[in-house]
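Page 47, continued from p. 46.
Same chain as before, 785 aa.
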Amino acid sequence: MGKDAELSLPGLPQRKKIEVIESEGKKKVLLREQPFMTWASEDESASRMAIVQLYELGFATQEELSDAFQVHIKSIYNYINAYKADGVRGLIDQPRGPKQEWKLVPSLKAEILRLLLLEGITTYEGIQKRLEEKGQKVSIESIRQVLIENGFVRERIEIDESKQGSLFEYLEKEDDWQLKLPFVWEEKPKTQINEIEKVKEAETEKKNNPDILGLPRMTSQRKDRSHYSPVERIHLDLLERGEYSTYAGGLLYLPLLQQYNFLPIIRKVIKTDEGNDYTLEQLCLTFFYYNIFGFSSIENFKTAYSEEFGLLIGKVNSPSIFTLRRFLEDIQRLNPGERLIEEFARWYLLSEIAEWGVVYIDEHFIPYYGKELISMGFFTTHNKPLKGSLHYFVTDRNFNPLLFLLRSSSEDIIPKIPEIIKKLRKIAREAGIKEEEVKNLTVIFDRGAYSGDLFRILDKEHKQDEKEKDEDTKVKFITWAKYADQWVNDIKEEKFNQSTKIEYEVQKPEEVKYFEDDKKKMSKYGKIRTVVIQSGRKKKRMAIYTNAKKEEVSCEEIIRLMCRRWGEENYIKTLKLNYLIDYSPGFVTEEIEEQPLVDNPEVVKLKQKKAELAAKIQKAKAEIGEKVIEAGEKLNGQELREKHKGLFVEAIGTDAEKLLIGQKIGELPEEIPFDEAHEGRRQVRFNYERKCFLDCIKVFTCAMDKKMCEILLNYHDREDVWPTLAMIVRRGGFVKLEGNKLYVRLRGFKNQIIDYAARHLCEDLNKMEPFTLDKFHFPLHYEVV
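Result:
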């Protein structure tokens, strides 16, 4: 019988085939109880060697070695492969950091720059010699590369007929063949220093003020490669070689971004640290294209093809989702939300994206289903109160974006309308609109803002209290009448003897009959101009209220403006479905120091109990009444009370209890702070800075899409222009730098109609002389191949 069999006999302790024993600072491997190898406990390399030898000699499997040496099986696998590749050397720990002398660590680069700037050594050999004295051996080529990367040397080669010349300009005599750097510490005249300082001040002023910062000019000469970092040189090499990008169609937007000052608008408001890997401009362009290509969230952006997306922003790769989130955290700290919204609105007016004169105002509820305790608002879609936020959108008469606000759902639209009007007039004055035109403003809103108090604030004829005296809130308003269903249907048919035709952008024209009523009065407001309309096959009637006088706005114009209000609803739906305006990049909460007042829950319970007692008393009285009717004249009052004593006692007792509850309710406050009502849990509010920044870009993206559609309408039917634009701008293509011009060649379309529209769109965009918005500023040329 073999030894292995003897070890497994009943009654004997079963021993492992391989055992590792440690004692007196040494480790020993026993193979079938016989010593196989011994080494110092701290020598990890010897332990790995023992593992490999046991496996190579066939004494143990990887699983057995993992169990015996208490090492993960994956590590066993790695040791065996390392031994097969490099022998014993593969099992020895390699020191961390640079493995070869030519590797330049940051500390060594800093030392080279210190010798140059502080010690004034201006020759390669001088720097090399000084480093050798400190025990650092560095080649002249490595020193030269460090100085080129940091902009101290221009990369240029001059070749003489007889011999290779110096790579740098000489500081001394031409016959001195010592390599020297192209700068010298010579004193410059004061006049030259003053001129340099003036130029620097002008450049600083331009950088900090986008109003005087013109768009970058295209240059016909390429800068040499020493002007760019190593990563930028890689990007240039990729462009020169030519790259295919799934997102190449996105570059079609660059002429519009250039024309409508997308980046200068943001740069004026947001000042971020330029020490990041990605500049503010590159991150803003990332978020713009993030909307163009329909990424649903920042987390979803990780599905983008990083290298191909990087071409859009002038980088080798797109930023990671960590970089985007870190950038949004910086935005939150800077708190630029309201200023950025107003700056975009000002530029919408300046660039004539939006017109002044007529504006539509509407609200959009964004429900929140999370666990945070925030205020509630009424969600009309579900017809019930929910936690959430409110968007207030303002568009011009053609439903182009003008302004938006993002607020808590507890803030009602009625007090917000005067705030929006004042903000609009402030922005219009900043945009240079004449004061006469600023005052001539017509505001259109839905019946959700129907309020006599609001109408008095907006009407210039009412100036009783302080709110009504504010001239900046006085406008011409138009809205639907509320609670008018009954009286409008009582108007005789023959009174609708006038009609007007309403033109829509997509929908077919509609003829509407109308009747004007000058005698209509509204509670809390007084006499108001009313236009009643009748439309459709069912002759549906609705009333429109306005404070505009007949000589200011005609009935036809009032009907046209009010009936076209659905255009703003469609605008909000477009933002919701195509640009995901409801998305929030995280919910950051803030404490509310003064908690809002809410109904006292104890008072609510007492009132409920009081109502139950009142119902009980009513029921008891009804039963007593029935008994009295049944008794008739058989029993007098005294006998009736004695016979039905229980009912009378119950009614009197219940009434007394109800009286006591009423007294208790009077002693308690009707409203108490939120935290007292919810056992110390405090209500919070959202910080909307991140969402405001993203929403500004989403609204701007929608405006740019509309501008692209206006160009495309010259070559395509209106009905399908939006899906056609989406197919064109999301088309992949090749991007290649030829000479000093960047060619964007989109793949052609099999559909001849779309292909025709795409080719002519490219031709029109080429006429706008586009160029890239990165630091290279390459001229662009679009074509479909």
